[in-house]
C-alpha cells in the first residue's frame, strides 16, 4: 500500500482527482492518510472531510517563528507516516528539513510545461496570464519531484494543452486542469504505487 499525504491551500480539485482516481481504481494500492492545508478555509479540507480523510490545518500564522512552523509541519508529516507527499496547490515554501527527511518522496503538480513559466512567483492564475502574454500556442502541466529549488526537481510526467486566441487566464486554467492536471497527477501516483508494490 502506498500511503500518501496531500498538501493543499485552495479548492482541492487536484485532491478530488486523486480521491476519484482511487475510488474508480485508476490509482491502485494507494491510501490518502491525511490532508494538510495552511489555509483553514481551503475547500480542499471540506473535500477531505466529506471523504472521511483526516484533515489538518497547520499555518505559519499559528507559530511565533517560521522555524517553529517548519518543525510542526515536519512532526505532523511524521505522525501521518507517508510513503509519498503530494503537493497539490500548496502555497507554502517546503522546509529544508522536510525535503531532506522525504528526499525523492515529494511530488508537485505545476500548471505549465516546465521549464517554461515556472519558478518564484509563478503560481495559480499568474502562470496562465504569462502564457497568454507571451502568446505561446501550447501550454500544459507538469508533475515533478520536489527538491530544494522552486519547480526544479526531476520531471515525472507532462501533458500538453492547446491555447486558443479567445482564452482568458481563467478559461485556460480550467482547460489545463481538466485536460492535464487531473489526468497526469493521478497517473503519476499510480505509477509510483505500482513501483512500490513491485519492490
Ligand atoms: C492547480 O492549478 C495546480 O496546478 C497549482 O495550484 C492549483 C491548485 O488547484 N499548483 P486545486 O486546489 O487543486 O483546485
Annotation keywords:
alpha/beta; binds 5-O-phosphono-beta-D-ribofuranosylamine; globular; 199 residues; 6 helices
Can you describe this structure?
By secondary structure, the chain is α/β, with parallel strands linked by helices. It contains 6 helices and 7 strands; from the N terminus they run βαβαβαβαβαββα. The chain has helices spanning 13-24, 43-50, 66-80, 96-101, 125-134, 169-198; strands spanning 2-8, 30-37, 55-57, 84-87, 106-110, 138-145, 155-162. Strands 3-2-1-4-5-6-7 form a 7-stranded mixed beta sheet, with helices on one face. Helix 1 (13-24) crosses helix 6. It is globular. The N and C termini lie close together (11 Å). 39% of the residues are buried. The mean pLDDT is 97. Bound molecules: 5-O-phosphono-beta-D-ribofuranosylamine.
Question: What percentage of the residues does DSSP assign to strands (E)?
Answer: 15-25%
Gross morphology: globular
Q: What is the residue-averaged pLDDT?
A: 97
Low-confidence stretches: none
Measured between the Cα atoms of the first and last residue, the distance is 11 Å
Provide the succession of SSEs.
EHEHEHEHEHEEH
